[in-house]
């Protein structure tokens, strides 16, 4: 059973506009959330994270929003650039985990066109 | 500082053959993980290790074995390869959990079983 869900397999956005990638989770024990970016033929790279004690975290063009009551988080990229075209994975970790285990969604392919 | 490296990058096996994938990290991380990525399936955890000499099963462990004889190395073995094990395999590592849950990934091994 998929505990972290990314229901949009793909998203296409024009350069300069906002990209919004969504992620839902079912396990109420998750309290730390991460976004990874993956280019073809490379390993995923960490992008941004958020703890459940916050509802927003920003890093340059990237902002992650967390809505705990809805068990939903989103990644906003503003402005989008062609180099942002990649697969984005949402991941979550349970509260108090000492194993460092992450649960991943299936990914969303973002395409930013000029 | 090479981070996480994986050997080999590509491999083609025939059904029933065996092989070992090697993961090495130079960040002195305690935690290491093996994932497989299949189209539309995201990243699924095969096995993981929370320290030298320890291993544990993840989400999809069947058909795989692992060993962590040295802190910096995590080996993934396929004793009798099957076409269903055709996938891209990623290794990842993580430092002390208290510093965050970010995992650092290797570049991947693309395995084809015919």
Q: What is the β-strand count of chain A?
A: 11
Could you name the ranges of chain B where pLDDT drops below 50 across 5 or more consecutive residues?
none
Q: How do the SSEs of chain A run, as a string of H and E?
A: EEEEEEEEEEE
Amino-to-carboxy terminus distance of chain B: 36 Å
Contiguous low-pLDDT stretches of chain A (5 residues minimum) are none
| Largest interface pair | A-B, 24 and 27 residues
The overall pLDDT average of chain A reads 94
Give your account of this protein's structure.
Chain A has 114 residues and is an all-beta fold. In chain A, 0% of the residues lie in helices and 55% in strands. In chain A, a hairpin with an 8-residue loop joins strand 9 and strand 10 (103-104). Chain B has 114 residues and is mainly beta. In chain B, a hairpin with a 6-residue loop joins strand 5 (42-49) and strand 6. Chain B is globular, with a radius of gyration of 13 Å.
What's the short story on this structure?
The complex is a heterodimer of chains A (114) and B (114). Chain A is mainly beta. Chain A has no helices and 11 strands.
SSE order and pairing:
The complex is a heterodimer of chains A (114) and B (114).
Chain A: E1 4-5, E2 10-14, E3 19-25, E4 30-38, E5 45-51, E6 56-59, E7 62-67, E8 72-77, E9 86-94, E10 103-104, E11 108-113
Parallel strand pairs in A: 2-11
Antiparallel strand pairs in A: 1-3, 3-8, 4-5, 4-9, 6-7, 7-8, 9-10, 9-11
Chain B: E1 4-7, E2 10-13, E3 19-25, E4 31-38, E5 42-49, E6 56-57, E7 65-67, E8 73-78, E9 87-94, E10 104-105, E11 109-113
Parallel strand pairs in B: 2-11
Antiparallel strand pairs in B: 1-3, 3-8, 4-5, 4-9, 5-6, 7-8, 9-10, 9-11
